[in-house]
Specification:
The protein is an alpha/beta fold. It is 34% helix and 22% strand. This is o-succinylbenzoate synthase.
Length: 369
């Protein structure tokens, strides 16, 4: 296939309710939908998961646009593509910028699957028809509010509760949630807000029978995480620290984590995500699919990757209605009793609501050859 045209749709979507993490508060989401078209007129969609501000990692919407326009799109259009796995090799000279790489690679995977009349899940080697879903709960103003929200999601059937923590909003809150819900799966995510000086907090969290503690320490660390993991029983899960198969190998060898949150955007695309998945499968490391408050386009990609066999734990792939009044895909992503059924139409399996996209669009850039 030969890419003939790439359109960058910049969207602004308001979240139904604000989402607070240790690094900042989200009230809305600004991101790019990437549309690619080939010589036959087939199209594919990808989503860039970068935020407006570089608070989770170093990328932003502006860096994504720059790197796509000036480097990655020209490379993607330069010559025919026989298989999407070729792209990570083609992009290799461009250092990092994983979210930008993943955005265009994902769109081309969707297009490739549609050309083959296969679902994206089948095309990448997925084996599940249904995936289990957990939910990520932002930092709340009060414990009463948090307990109410957890109760609501438990009743909806979500398979595990992930609760965001930050210094001062951690052990006491989670202890109360555990007290009220002795039997549910609970995990916490610190988004790198702590250091080893906070060991006493992790020692206490270690008594609450948590599934895992996600990214407690620095975003670029694997050494201190290994020191912490050696002292607690609760598995550490790495998110921010893992950008590649090489990172995953080193973290596993050092004992920095027992679980990996795979976000396709953070590791540069589906090809790299599959390599990490395969390595973890071989070494008995559980993986699950994280989220970046995506629209339905990104979430549909997340559902596809979650059908790989070693995605053994429920992901952050909650349904469209958890985030948006109306999502930009048809059908929307629907969770029933904590489970998503994988669509069986080609590619990502969800159509784009073109007129809704246009009404949410703040900028558009077209690159054509
Ligand atoms: O660390 O997983 C994270 C949201 C924004 C940035 C980072 C993270 C998150 C979430 C929510 O936890 C994931 C989602 O529901 O899409
Ligand atoms: Mg995380």
């Amino acid at each position: 296939l030969q890419i003939k045209k790439v359109t960058l749709h910049k969207l602004f979507m308001k979240l139904k309710s604000p989402f607070e993490t240790s690094f900042g508060l989200f009230k809305d989401r600004e991101f790019f939908v990437i549309e690619v078209e080939d010589e036959t007129g087939e199209i594919g969609f990808g989503e860039s998961v970068a935020f407006a501000l570089p608070l989770y990692n170093e990328e932003t919407n502006k860096t994504v646009k720059h790197v796509l326009e000036d480097f990655l799109i020209p490379l993607a259009m330069d010559k025919p593509i026989h298989h999407p796995d070729e792209l990570s090799e083609r992009f290799k000279t461009i250092k990092r910028n994983y979210m930008a790489k993943s955005a265009i690679e994902g769109a081309i995977w969707d297009l490739y699957a549609k050309r083959r009349q296969q679902t994206l899940a089948e095309t990448i080697g997925g084996v599940k028809k249904e995936i289990e879903v957990g939910i990520s709960i932002g930092i709340q103003d009060s414990i009463e509010e948090l307990l109410k929200i957890v109760d609501g999601y438990v009743k909806q059937g979500y398979k595990r509760m992930k609760i965001k923590i930050k210094p001062g909003r951690d052990y006491e809150l989670i202890r109360k949630v555990r007290e009220k819900f002795p039997n549910i799966s609970i995990m916490v995510d610190a988004n790198s807000a702590y250091t080893l000086d906070d060991f006493s907090i992790f020692a206490k969290l270690d008594t609450l029978d948590l599934m895992m503690i996600e990214q407690p320490l620095a975003h670029d660390d694997i050494i201190d995480h290994a020191k912490l993991q050696a002292k607690i029983n609760t598995p550490i899960c790495l998110d921010e620290s893992i950008h590649s198969l090489e990172d995953a190998k080193k973290a596993i060898e050092l004992g920095s984590c027992k679980i990996i949150n795979i976000k396709v955007g953070r590791v540069g695309g589906i090809t790299e995500a599959k390599k990490i998945h395969d390595y973890c499968q071989k070494h008995g490391i559980d993986v699950w699919c994280g989220g970046m408050l995506e629209s339905g386009i990104g979430r549909a990609h997340n559902v596809a990757i979650s059908t790989l066999a070693q995605f053994t734990l429920p992901g952050d792939t909650a349904g469209s209605s958890r985030y948006w009044e109306e999502d930009i895909v048809d059908p929307e992503i629907e969770v029933r009793n904590g489970v998503i059924s994988v669509q069986d139409s080609p590619g990502i399996g969800h159509k784009l609501k073109r007129s809704l996209l246009e009404s949410l669009r703040t900028e558009m850039f077209v690159i054509q050859n």
